[in-house]
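Appendix B. One record, verbatim.
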Amino acid sequence: MQQKAMYVIIAVLAALVAALVGSLVAMAEEGKPTVALKAGAATFAGALTLLLGVMLSLGVVGS
């Protein structure tokens, strides 16, 4: 497996972990599954964008 693809997979997995934590925190605070789903989706999108942005600026991924 190429090293850049491995870094992208790691970024996606880290974003999924952040989304899980975000949804668990929302579930503990609000107690509603829809709020937890929305919080998890927003956290996933934000974390993935941030991680890929950092990786692009460091030159890990990209052309």
